[in-house]
Design goal:
The structure holds two protein chains of two kinds. Chain A has one domain. In chain A, helix 2 packs across helix 3, helix 3 crosses helix 7 and helix 9 packs across helix 12. In chain A, the strands form three sheets. In chain A, strands 3, 4, 5, 6, 9, 10 and 11 form a seven-stranded mixed sheet that branches. Chain A has a two-stranded antiparallel sheet with strand order 1-2. Chain A has a two-stranded antiparallel sheet with strand order 7-8. By secondary structure, chain A is α+β, with helices and mostly antiparallel strands. The relative contact order of chain A is 0.16. Chain A is about 35% helix and about 15% strand. A three-stranded parallel sheet of chain B has the order 1-2-3, sandwiched between helices. Classes of the chains: A alpha+beta, B alpha/beta. Chains A and B meet through helix 13 of A and helix 1 of B.
Chain lengths: ~350, ~70
């Protein structure tokens, strides 16, 4: 059932928590009650009309109005100034290439990861360093949680009903971080995708659980280890799609010092991911033949090379994290592509600061 | 008419309702279906042929082919 615009609930922490659980509005954790006052305070941090509909969220085509997005941001515990990032994340999720309908309804262990770039990431203190994917930062925790609550409460992807993930994964509670642009030897992700450094963006990836890219003495070690992680992912070999490699600053510096530009690193990775068809068990061989027939256009022998992704450009590299050498390899959901949107005002112009969007009281 | 595998039957009904189809004609197949070899797919459809045709012809509202 879609969320009503207003309800009355007994003004008690326990009553509100139990009510939200009963109605299916919570991720299992307590919510911040989205009172009219809190939602209006949140709405003061966007120049867009509260009744503007950003889009319709699958699988049940719920109306994502600015007001409903704001209400879910309150429930997640967002500070009001985070609202522009949450709105932009929703816009990115609704990009056709992201294929949100499939992401919402897959049985696979897929979640949405939001990566924020640009000055607004730093303005809001979105963690890009130590524990960026872990707990401890309100911005990371609540922006990611707001995205999940929106997908459940507006989109209707309720666990056990319309969301039939076999197991799910912990990233479905919250998954948001910023890229560590200050410690990256390369251009940031959003600049690589056509933005200027001064713009701020939200990119969304549909990712599975991560594999650790551990240590490595030199650039080739690190890239080869990352490539080998992909070979363990039967779902990627069978289905293709995209991958995301989140390199820690130390490993990124070693790779860059080894003479690799970001593009060169991607090309090396692509050449070393994948396996010959003969490495797969017969059951998986027939799945690859059905789902990736283009790999067999020049013949279909057992030596046919099965790359994890079809092209180096389908391997995405970002730099994130703190000290020491641990990076993350993510297999992305095969039927979804990364989507990136700029944080803008209502005229579509990029803003340098969320304060530019704040309505005067 | 909606074809779905067992794991998605609740979703299929909910999505059809959201799109304005209160009582969709539904054919439920075994799960998983997408990774079945071609021969297994043909087997499933042969076994359920009569049921599927009955739904297509409007004689039944839903069928489960297992």
């Amino acid at each position: 059932m879609p969320m009503p615009d207003e309800v009355e609930v007994l003004d008690s922490y326990d009553a509100i928590y139990e009510f939200s659980l009963k109605e299916g509005w919570s991720d299992g954790l307590p919510i911040v009650p989205p009172t009219v006052e809190r939602v209006n305070t949140m709405l003061a941090w966007t120049d867009r009309d509260a009744d503007e509909i950003v889009g319709y969220i699958p699988p049940l085509n719920g109306e994502a109005s600015i007001r409903r997005i704001a209400a879910n941001a309150v429930m997640a515990g967002c500070r009001p100034e985070y609202l522009p990032v949450v709105i932009t994340a929703v816009e990115a999720l609704l990009d056709k290439g992201f294929n949100l309908d499939a992401v919402q309804t897959t049985t696979g262990p897929v979640t949405t990861l939001a990566i924020v770039n640009g000055p607004i990431a730093r303005e809001l203190g979105i963690n890009a360093g130590t524990n960026a994917f872990g707990p401890g930062w309100r911005s990371n925790a609540t922006i990611g949680r707001a995205v999940r609550l929106i997908l459940v409460n507006i989109g209707g992807a309720r666990p056990g009903e319309t969301n039939q993930r076999t197991q799910g994964q912990p990233g479905m509670f919250t998954f948001c971080a910023a890229e560590n642009e200050a410690r990256s030897p390369w251009e940031p992700f959003h600049v690589e995708h056509g933005m200027t450094r001064e713009k701020s963006t939200v990119a969304v990836f549909a990712v599975g659980a991560s594999l650790d890219i551990y240590e490595g003495e030199n650039a080739t070690d690190i890239l080869t280890t990352a490539a080998h992680q992909s070979q363990a992912m039967m779902s990627k070999l069978c289905n293709g799609g995209e991958c995301l490699i989140a390199l820690c600053p130390e490993q990124a510096q070693v790779v860059a010092s080894g003479g690799f530009s970001k593009q060169q690193a991607r090309e090396f990775l692509w050449k070393h991911t994948g396996v010959p068809l003969s490495n797969l068990m017969p059951y998986y061989r027939q799945i690859v033949r059905k789902r990736r027939p283009h790999l067999f256009e020049k013949g279909g022998g057992d030596s046919t090379w099965i790359p994890v992704v079809d092209h180096p450009d389908r391997l995405h590299l970002i730099v994130i994290g703190g000290e020491s050498r641990h990076s993350s390899f993510f297999a992305c959901f095969a039927y979804s592509r990364v989507a990136l949107k700029c944080i803008t005002n209502r005229q579509g112009e990029a803003v340098r600061s969320v304060a530019d969007l704040r309505r005067s009281s | 008419m909606v074809f779905c595998s067992q794991a998605f039957s609740i979703l299929a009904r909910a999505q059809a309702r959201a799109l304005g189809m209160e009582r969709p004609r539904l054919i439920v197949l075994p799960h998983p279906f997408g990774s079945l070899p071609d021969e297994a797919v043909k087997d499933v459809l042969q076994r359920g042929r009569a049921e599927v045709l009955a739904v297509i012809a409007g004689k039944k509202e839903a069928a489960e082919v297992m």
